[in-house]
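Let's practice the habit of predicting before peeking. Look at the sequence and jot down your guess about where helices and strands might fall. Then scroll down.
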Amino acid sequence: MNVIDKTISHDIDLGVLLAALDAHPDLPLVFKYDGRDVKPGYHVTEVKSGRFDALDCGANPESWTEIFVQLWDVDEDGRTHMPSGKFSAIVRKVSEHVGLPKSARLTFEVSDGVAPMALYCASTPSVQGGVVRIELSPRPASCKPRDRWLEEQARTASSCCGKTSTCCA
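Done guessing? Here is the structure:
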């Protein structure tokens, strides 16, 4: 598969994240990125929401809201991984003040305080061995007109009848 043909398989919104975490508020929350788990002392240093208006590379207007959760990957004071409920409480507190839309695109900014921040999208949380795990994947650049075309091609292909070459409309 050509890298340019790769689609994002991990990309959840805030509502999906919070609903999954609410089911396991006492379990430790562990993020995994770049092949490793965040350190037990990680901090949520910032949660912010932004509204974006732009033109894509095909001169099409684009608008979206995005929520950024900044994780500082440090190990301090012999702490353990934050419980899922504490993470949810932090996000909800921010939401009370700035109004985070639950349907907004969710992006994680992660750094250890030395390396530059990197952007990640998140998979749906899963429970493994008494821990809530969220896999973070690098957020690649994309071409929105091409992405829309690929989505349309996939919809057209999935709406066609099995072995025939014509659609069953």
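How did you do? The radius of gyration is 19 Å.
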